[in-house]
From TrEMBL:
EC number: 3.1.3.3
Keyword check for Magnesium: yes
Protein name: Haloacid dehalogenase
Family in the record: Belongs to the HAD-like hydrolase superfamily. SerB family.
Presence of the UniProt keyword Transmembrane helix in the record: yes
Keywords: Hydrolase, Magnesium, Membrane, Metal-binding, Transmembrane, Transmembrane helix
Location of region: Disordered: 1-21
Length: 285
């Protein structure tokens, strides 16, 4: 059994009904984080602030940048993700847990929120408007996932958890929220909060999240890698393309075509108003 690290970002909410109750009809929207909601690895996005605070050496920064480049340019298959996991676990060994949490909180707005896809932001807002719980399910560490989920307005979140010894990371994972573990986490969340998975949604960019996508009635592929795109085609799942990272709280900048249309509209409106004004003055004379 997988112990789900569920951090409720709104603890004041009344407790929902459990999955065993007859009215267990709540709907959830489960979102992967990296390359689905934000445009890069959430953990590696903090490379610079960790370096500035003395947690990373220059060599470690170069290694992290190289790992991030490979992550962005390649499909996240099992081997690559395992290497990424080992890299991050080794990189964080010995770090002070409270210091990491403080850095993440202090730099979140500058480091991560500019990477949020505008399309994901709008989709999350739509789910919330429809009364759905939004849940972030990520392989990234809970110290990073929790504050990001809170900023996104998510109801709950779950992420990987590192073993901690004397207030410091021991360099190994207790719970790796990846692959089949995500599906188990979703089932446990459904039991805990009374979600009807047959009516719920899930979004991911990677075929490694197929177990999560197959748990819900409405799976969606976002910027899919090749294996996930093939699975989406075979199963008739919608494919969504997110391509506009914008800071949270800021509307996406209009496209040049939209600006041109706006200019033409304003110009035509000015001409009509001008002609109406001249016609009115002529009639008055």
């Amino acid at each position: 059994m997988v112990i789900v690290t569920d951090t409720s970002v709104n603890p004041s909410r009344p407790a929902p009904s459990t999955g065993d109750s007859p009215d267990a009809t709540r709907i959830a929207a489960f979102f992967d984080l990296d390359k689905t909601v934000i445009a890069k690895s959430s953990v590696l996005a903090f490379t610079r602030p960790f370096f500035e605070e003395g947690l990373l050496s220059r060599r470690a920064v170069l290694q992290s940048t190289y790992a991030q480049l490979l992550y962005l340019l390649s499909a996240a298959d099992q081997t690559r993700v395992d290497r990424m996991r080992e890299h991050i676990a080794h990189m964080c060994k010995g770090w002070d847990v409270e210091q990491v949490g403080s850095i993440v909180e202090k730099t979140l707005q500058d480091v991560v929120t500019p990477l949020v896809y505008a399309e994901a932001k709008d989709l999350i807002a739509d789910h919330r408007a429809r009364g759905h719980d939004v849940i972030i399910v990520s392989a990234s560490g809970q110290e990073v996932v929790t504050p990001i989920a809170r900023t996104l307005g998510a109801s709950h979140s779950t992420g990987s958890r590192m073993r901690i010894v004397d207030g410091r990371y021991a360099g190994e994972l207790e719970f790796y929220c990846f692959g089949e573990a995500k599906a188990v986490a979703i089932r446990e969340l459904a039991d805990r909060y009374g979600y009807d998975l047959s009516r719920s949604y899930a979004y991911s960019d990677s075929a490694t999240d197929l177990p999560m996508l197959l748990e819900v009635g409405h799976p969606r592929a976002v910027n899919p890698d090749r294996p996930l795109r093939r699975a989406a085609t075979e199963n008739g799942w919608p494919v969504l393309i997110f391509a506009r990272p914008v800071p949270l709280g800021r509307r996406a900048r209009p496209s040049p075509r939209a600006l041109a249309t706006l200019a033409v509209t304003l110009g035509v409106t000015a001409l009509i108003l001008g002609a109406t004004r001249r016609l009115t003055e002529h009639r008055m004379r």
